[in-house]
Amino acid sequence: MDPRLSPDPTSLDPTPGHISNTMDTSADNHASMDSDMFTDSQPASAGTPSSLSNVNLTADGGSNAGGGAEGNSKRKRFVKVVEVDAPNNLDLDAYIATYKGHTKVNRLEFIADRCPSLQVDALKLAITELRNTNTLHVSRYINLARKLNEAVKFGAPGSASVSSDLLTVDKAWADSQMLKAKQQTDLLEGELKNYKRNSIKESIRMGNIELGNHYYACGDLTSAHRSYSRTRDYCTTSKHIIELCMNVIKASIELGNFPHVLTYVVKAESTPEVAQDKELTKAKLKAASGLANLDLSKYPAAARDFLSIGEELVGNQYGDVISANDIAVYGGLCALASFNRTELKRLVIDNVGFRQYLELEPHIRDLIQGFYNSNYVLCLDIMDKWKNDYLLDLHLHSHIEALYTNIRKKALVQFTSPFLTVDLTKMAKSFSTTVPALEKELVSLIIGGQIEARIDSQQKILWAKQTNKRSAIFERSTAMGQDYEREAKALVLRMQMTNHGLVVKSPPGERGGPNDSESPFEGPHHPRGGRDGREMFAGTRANVSSFLSSFSRDRHHR
Amino acid sequence: MAPSDPSFDEIISKIQAATDIAAVTKTLAPYLNNLNDTVFAAQPSGQADPLDALDPAAHSFAYLHFLVHRCKASHGFDHALLTKVWAFVTSCDGEQVRLASHKAMSFAEALVKVATDTRQPIIAIKPLAIFIQRLQASPGQLTMIHPLLAKTCLLAQSVKDIIPILNNDISDVKPQQTHINYKDFLLYHYYGGMIYAFLKNFERAVEFFKLAVSAPAEVASAIQIEAHKKYVLTSLLQYGRVLPLPKYIASAVQRTIKVQCVAYADFATAYEKKSNGAIRTELEKAKPIFVRDKNFGLAKQCMEALHRRNIQDLTRTYLTLSIENITSLIGLGSEPDGARRVEGIIVRMIESGAVFATISHEHAGGMVSFLDDPNQHNNTITMDMINAQIQKATAITAKLSAMDQAISSMPAFFNKQGSHGPDHSGYPMDESEYSMHMGYDNYIDEGAPLSLIEHFSESFL
Predict the structure, then answer these.
(1) Mutation to test the A interface, candidates B214, B274, B403, most A Cβ within 10 Å
(2) How much is the average pLDDT of A323-336?
(3) Spatial CB neighbours of A329, under 8 Å, sequence gap ≥ 6
(4) I need a surface site. Which of A82, A107, A172, A235 has the fewest CB within 10 A?
(5) Do B439 and A549 touch (CB under 8 A)?
(6) What does the pLDDT look like over A234-276, one tens digit per residue?
(7) Taking CB atoms and an 8 Å limit, are A520 and B226 in contact across chains?
(8) Interchain CB distance below 8 Å, B407 and A541
């Protein structure tokens, strides 16, 4: 609770009564938990800054029950939950080992929500992780345990191997963790207040960061974000600013507030760098901005960000946000979806730094090579095989369709570009699709102007279009001439009208409603002499001159 | 007849004495204006008709005075009056008539009134069309008769005689000469646009509506709003999208349009996306408004134009396509005799030159082969067209340059410039003004026509 926000004197000074009050609420909660594991009767005790404020036990079992990151995120897109039967290549243990911190649990939970065959395993891993790290985010633990119970109840694959100590909620541990969190919160808040009273800048900053870290650990991301942001006023060196940015970026990514991430990336990048960890910070910022651009569907920008990370993150140094494997996958797919052949060669294949990441994900490397060498069957095959895996990725899942469509379009364009005629049946075979479906894809590309060709739908042949440049120029210049004449005439006329006072005015005496007072079809003629429009001369002159000079210039350089 | 009134002979002799335009202005005009209307209205029996004594060419000013009352008094046309009207409009002296433009207006109104009363509006159209041509000081001048004639033509649905006048763009407005006001300008272009839309010449219709909408304004006129509504629909018909209005459109008009023409804007947005279903729902939604504004006919034509536009789009993507496929691609697949309708549309489009295609019935259902535009632009027609355009552009540029020069040499312009102080401090246009002068000077140096031709020829290389 922020002392600055609440003028209530009781909150400024945490009395024993205050604490016991909160304790009562948590005791109630536990009582209800004892009686039935599966009810969602727990009221969210709003207003307390402890981890309890995030308890949100909805019974839908959907993607949104996490209570933490996703519960608070402001997703613009409505993401359809895609159920994935089984990933083709995913090794859950190896995959998740590359992450640490919140994202590890977030990813596990994400996989559990989407993939029934991995549900139990993922939940087991997540719970173990929470227990092992002694998490303060108790609600999350309870939530996951409930999910695991549900999964076992419905007999999800792997249920048999679930040990009983994972199934039952360790109440004593949960209680103690909750109490710890609460005490820690009060302690840190008290300290911060103390620092503020003494107005020592650096201490206030540190106090805020510690409080933010604590909130972050408790899973109260909004409060964490707020605390981190507050250090802004107390930053004295560029190192502090970088720290502020990194903290805010971390919280914002988990909150799903990606525009915010971009703002802080820019802020951090424009800050003069401190010597230590310079390259690492830069790489992290690039990764964060890549994620943000990916989330905002700006694939070219995202690709450029991921490709410019360098070699700094190969060892999963940014594991609490993104793994090295992810960089390869995200970067590779975004690059394929947005770059042309030359760019692909220059920015991806010849990119030494990025090659390191590609080594981690050899199929992405094969995919890029295959695409570059126009081996589209291989490409589509790889893409198809790995699609399920990517659908289980926390950041990539909602973009997979768009990215795949873009890559496919690019492949189609590249395929047709060297030929004068293309047999649609053969082409359909190379893209493992049917002729009518291919025809539809081609039509959309032709209409979009990406392929210059026409389809002979009778003989199923694609003909490259022969545009007669000379004719096109004649047509264009004719149109231009007409435009010029028309615009010039309108200008002359308009100038005369202003000069002679032929301007629509509200009729005198009827100022009330200018639109209603005039009837378009009748009304007496008021012959009126031209008003002397001398004051308009300057304006008109400017009109003429600018028209004369700019028209030819505009058209000339078109 | 009041004793103070002079006799006919006196008047006639006065009139005949004023032989040149100066005399008419100085002596005759005040004299006639002071006379009582009854003098002109009376038709003396037994005496010689004063109109017979006058020459419509030499004494147009006086002749008009008599003729106005003759027309006002007339119920239904008699042959004698018609002859006189005809003689007057074919031979009158425009300069003299312009001196009495009120009278000329009343004359035209009286003529139209008589014509509509007798349900023969067509009788008034031809004389008025000729009258306008006599009245104009220059071929592109807008007179007060213009809107009246356009309205009459529209009501009579007889547009043959006004077309030459409409085709001649308005380039000259001089209220001092013709006593027009902004309403005349707006109405003329509004009616003109409707006439062109009636003739399905939508390109010109769009132009006319655009002129009405973009006329300088301090407040929006209802005519401009109505013109904008029709502008949207005709623009969709002709170009498939709403052409952007010129950027000098008055902000008051723009604001009012935004509020008043929501249904049109929605329809246009749906139309530009070319999806059949969305347009249909939008049309249904806007139907009451369109019907109220009497624009539903245009909107329905838009729907038909959509099919033509979609077919034209297909020519860019396909070389051959079966009629069946075309039908489903342009969204007529669900209709019972869609294929037959589509074939009809294509045949008409081929005839009008909108697409270049052949239809073969070798296969069941028919196969359409789209061809390229056979015009290779390597013939004299193109050459002539380009030459004509260069000449037009040169002429208009010369006119613009002349105007520019005229304005820049006016004392008022210099005063305006000077009032900002010699150092031009605080003159916001300073920078841009400077560059404008540069551009303008370039033109003068090179010689405007020459640079334009260069410009054209460069495009061909």
Answers:
(1) B403
(2) 88
(3) A361, A364, A390, A393, A396
(4) A172
(5) yes
(6) 888 888 888 888 888 888 888 888 888 888 888 888 877 665 6
(7) yes
(8) yes
Distance CA B97, CA A86 (A): 93
* Spatial distance between the Cα atoms of A308 and A348, rounded to a whole number of angstroms: 10
Closest-CA residue to B188 (of B222, B225, B147, B158): B147
Return the CATH architecture of domain B318-374: Orthogonal Bundle (1.10)
Q: Which two tokens stand for residue A356?
A: 């390191």
| Residue B193: predicted pLDDT | 92
CB B195 within 8 A of CB B154: yes
**Interface touch B319/A446, C-beta < 8 Å:** no
pTM beyond 0.80, yes or no: no
- Contact at CB, B403 and A544, closer than 8 angstroms: yes
- Tokens read off for A277: 């960890």
Contact present, A94 and A126 (Cβ < 8 Å) = no
Domains by residue range for chain A, with CATH = 49-169 (no CATH), 275-418 (1.25.40.570), 419-464 (no CATH)
pLDDT at A479 exceeding the cut of 90: no
Q: A-chain residues within 8 Å CB-CB of B183? A: 523, 525
- Give per-residue pLDDT as tens, A144-202: 888 888 888 777 666 666 666 667 777 888 888 888 888 888 888 888 888 888 888 88
Tokens coding A430: 């190379």
Q: Where are the domains of chain B?
A: 8-296, 318-374, 414-461
Per-residue tokens: B21? 């335009």
Give the pair of three-digit tokens for residue A389.
Answer: 């895996």
Note which residues in 509-528 of chain A have CB less than 8 A from chain B.
514-516, 518-521, 523, 525-528
Residues 413-472 of A with CB under 8 A from B: 442-443, 446-447, 454-459, 463, 468, 470-471
- Which residues from chain B sit within 8 angstroms of residue A528, using beta carbons? 175, 179, 181
Question: CA nearest A40: which of A59, A14, A60?
Answer: A59
Tell me whether residues A495 and B403 touch, CB distance under 8 A: yes
Tokens linked to A423: 């047999």
Indicate the residue type of B209: F
